[in-house]
Amino acid sequence: MKAVVFPEPGRLEIREVPDPKPAPDEVVLEVKASGICATDIHIFLGEFIATYPVIPGHEFSGEVVEVGREVRRFKVGDRVAVDPCIYCHSCPACRSHEENFCHNLKAYGIHLSGGFAEYVAVKESNLYGIEGLSWEEGAMVEPVGCAVHGLNQIAPLKPGGHGLIFGAGPIGLINMQLYLNAGLSTVTVVDLMEHKLKIAEELGATYTVLADDDMDGRLKEIRPEGFDLVVDATGNPKVVESMFRYVADRGKLLFFGVCPPDSRISISPYEVYKRELKIYGSFSLLYTASRAVELIRSGRVKVEPLISHRFPLERFEEAFRLKREDPNPMKVMITGGGAG
């Protein structure tokens, strides 16, 4: 079969590899859609917890084409999405119900062969049925699941409160939709790109603000007393450092974007103390894929407007270059045969 391979950091190949065979507790999927994520870029650059060589792709959906002898819940022809995380269930983190910190964590597309391939073998326990969803909606289950986990970190939100999100990319706008559904009365979105802010407006953003010289004044005009929740969805340390200027007293700050591992910011401990600020991080997803499926199926979280480009697997290098070098695209999707 054809697959994308990162042989080592900084190298990308599209080549023929052996077709996967299912272990007793696995199925083989024909991959129908797989999203390119910023994490894939970090993996390519050697900036993430990956092992090499690896077939990347951790946001994907597909059709079951073969099942292992112990598989009971799925059959050939089923449509499924994948939670990429595999936990050991025996380390101290897993035994404390903190599996996303599993000491032996493995993930499809990071340590194990992932979705940028024609076929992939996946454990039955990592599959979620997506009847009623398109293949592309199924591929978005993983990022929505990550956002749901982030919401769990900061819950409860202040009913009738006001949120601010830096970054109108796919993950920023997934979070925006979640917060509006979770009880915030307004969500303001900031970005450098006017066309992304237009999508934010179409999906329900209360206010959109262009990140230009007038941004500071505009945000202070919208909420002079600050925002109850301020979220970074850019992964830019300078943006993260600036969040404290806009948070209300006793407000919450969520670091959702993935900043470079060696980045540092400067904050005032006294300000955190005096204003009773609360700082949160959010890593990966944690058994939230099923809720992501339901949110997409219900229409509460709309993901198809977040997809801007589609490429076949054969054009992956072109798609990956676009994602790495051009700030304009939203979600770039790799589509397989019969995707729709």
Defining traits:
alpha/beta; Quinone Oxidoreductase, Chain A, domain 1; Rossmann fold; 7-stranded mixed β-sheet; 6-stranded parallel β-sheet; globular
Brief overview, please?
The chain has 340 residues and is of the alpha/beta class.
Description:
- The chain has helices at 38-45, 92-95, 135-139, 141-154, 170-181, 194-202, 215-222, 237-242, 269-275, 289-298, 316-325, and strands at 2-5, 13-16, 26-36, 60-67, 79-82, 85-86, 106-107, 119-123, 127-129, 162-166, 186-191, 207-210, 227-232, 247-255, 278-281, 307-312, 331-335.
- By secondary structure, the protein is of the alpha/beta class.
- The protein folds into 2 domains: 2-140 and 303-335, Quinone Oxidoreductase, Chain A, domain 1 (Alpha-Beta Complex), CATH 3.90.180; 147-281, NAD(P)-binding Rossmann-like Domain (Rossmann fold, 3-Layer(aba) Sandwich).
- The strands form 4 sheets. Strands 3, 4, 5, 8, 9, 16 and 17 form a 7-stranded mixed β-sheet that branches. A 6-stranded parallel β-sheet has the order 12-11-10-13-14-15, sandwiched between helices. A two-stranded antiparallel sheet has the order 1-2.
- A hairpin with a 7-residue loop joins strand 1 and strand 2 (13-16).
- The longest helix has 14 residues, at 141-154.
- The protein starts with a strand and ends in a 5-residue tail after the last strand.
- The model has no long low-confidence stretch (mean pLDDT 97).
